[in-house]
Write a structure and sequence with these properties.
260 residues; ten-stranded mixed β-sheet
Length: 260
Amino acid sequence: MEKISRILVPFDFSETAKTGLDYAVHFVEGHDDMEIVLCYVSDNPDMERLQQEFERTRTSYGPNFRSPMSWVVGKEPLTDSILHIRETNNIDLIIMGTSGSAGSSTENTHASKLVLEADCPVLTVQGSAEEFKLKNIALVLGKDKIEDVEVLATLLEVARRFNAMVHVLTVQNEPGVYGYSKADESNENVLEYYLENFYSHHMFMENPDVVAGIFNYAEEKDIDLIAILPRNHSKKAEPSEGLLTKELTVRSKVPVLAID
């Protein structure tokens, strides 16, 4: 992807949905050529009321917000509808607010289900987007070679847009010597080439709990966005179950960008 032009935001007027929209508005701020498309999913929509509510939502961001904002309506089920709208409306990125899971992190949420099923970039936001900042990105990599290097173009586009530095993090949950394998060397060359001068460094660290290691690093380094390359749609290797992607989507207080 060379440019992010159209962003899809699932929106049902809830506070969680507004969090996603607030983030999207900050994301496109100052870029009048970028469009936000709101997606409302219902089998029995009141079109007249929706028109009024969407217009009220649009104007709530004030006269200085000039980026186009349109809306579409889809039918249940939610995830299928979002993905269909994405395919038929030339969407480059989906931004979705999420409240996470009140129970086990293994439970499905609307956001985690979308991230695992979508074969496109999805950015999930939990909490508040009022204090928007995007200067430090942590790209989480495993020990395997990056399968589809072209997906890094999306990360580069985000880094360029916000002049953000990309920290690359590999967390190992067992002892060993890391950073010297052929896969590591290949990944290093790819990162330096595709991320250009926005690539900061690659950190290898040990932690028996990979997710905790990621969150600890994010807090210590003031990370504003966690990026991950899901392997559940892998075509060259055995697809993963997406457990790490799901854990991060459900539990992370830092926005998570799944690049697929």
